[in-house]
Design brief:
The protein is mainly β. The chain contains one helix and four strands.
């Protein structure tokens, strides 16, 4: 009997390599050669008992990417976002960028006094 969990199992109808099971019930989400698609389960009895598909995952975290990591030798996400002007980046070169708020004069509010002349 199928466990009452959500996960990938072999397709009990043998139409696909795997089918997503939710609470022990086959869903329309199917997978073949790593490509997911939709295919409603047929209105027939399953031809075999599904078994959980074991996913291959790197135990050392080498399959994970971090925001500062570069993918394929290119720029990291942080570098691409800074280049695009995100997160407060400007188009000025780093030598012209202010390094702290003490570099700028204090802000003053404009006077809202009416001109009486």
């Amino acid at each position: 009997m199928v466990e009452r969990e959500e996960d990938w199992y072999t397709d009990p109808f043998e139409r696909h390599e795997a089918r997503w099971m939710s609470d022990g019930t086959p869903t329309k989400l199917a997978r073949d050669a790593g490509v997911e698609s939709y295919d409603d389960p047929p209105d027939e009895e399953p031809s075999h008992t599904p078994t959980r598909v074991q996913e291959e995952q790197a135990a050392n975290g080498s399959d994970l990417l971090r925001a500062g990591d570069s993918e394929g030798g290119g720029q990291s996400l942080n570098e691409r976002m800074a280049e695009a002007g995100q997160f407060g980046a400007t188009s000025r070169s780093p030598t012209h960028a202010r390094t702290s708020s003490s570099d700028s004069p204090p802000l003053r509010r404009r006077s809202r006094r009416p001109d009486l002349s």
